[in-house]
Amino acid sequence: MSATPQLVSVRVDGGELNVAKWGDRGPVVYAAHGITGNYLMWQPVADLLAGEVQIVAPDLRGRGDSGKLPGPYGMAAHVRDAIATLDALGVDEAMVLGGSMGGYVAVLMAAQHPDRVSAVGLCDGGVALPVPDGIDPDEMLKATLGPTMERLDMTFGSLDDYVAFWRKHPALADDWNDAIQAYVVYDHETTPDGRIRTKVNKDAIVADGRDLLTNTDVHSCISDITAPTWLLRAPRGLLNQPTPLISDDMLALWRGDRLPQLEDEMLADLNHFTLFLTEPGAKAIAERVRSSI
Prior knowledge:
Rossmann fold; alpha/beta; 8-stranded mixed β-sheet; 10 strands; globular; two-stranded antiparallel sheet; 12 helices
């Protein structure tokens, strides 16, 4: 049975941030989701850790029921929202768990607020993706996210049509489950003319994507992280292609001798989505969280 989160609104710059909170006792884990995700990305992990920790997971600014929050966007804005959330909940220190883009939020938060972060968990994210010379960051973002960006402009005749579109996703089609269904259904909203579309604010995606590719603070901040840090990687990508989002070579360039405490593990038989939304992936994350609290 899935654990049911409490949903709270936290006052942040520009309005209210929607925040899910699982549990009311134990160490606090602040969990930041991926670039077009929502808080339900963490539901399978929350189910496995029920009664052990408190998981605090927002819909990041521009996503889910925080979708109407205005800019500025960017990793620093998400860190400010994270600190505002911990303050509102009376949390002095938390483990920070970042998935995909949320990993960049996690590393910047750990570097800028070391007194608030006890440990850092990264899941297929947080590792700087340098833009080669002569490449437009917006073009690199499109190349990396591919159909994800196209979906932001699409509308559908019904919720069933929207879910059917997702069910064909090459990273999800063979592993569809209740957690994925809930994640997808929560993402939708109805347009004024009765069509169905994603809740995600495209302007936020473009701004955040450009920021994580070009912001030197995000790329260099790992030298300032003192907390224990681990990284779980999926061997398959966003479209289930047999190429990891974070390669060994990329990780070596990013880490160097600047993050000696990093523990890295490449998992088996998972892609960038199933790492979070299936039981094998969630178990791997939950086990690492247990070892960090």
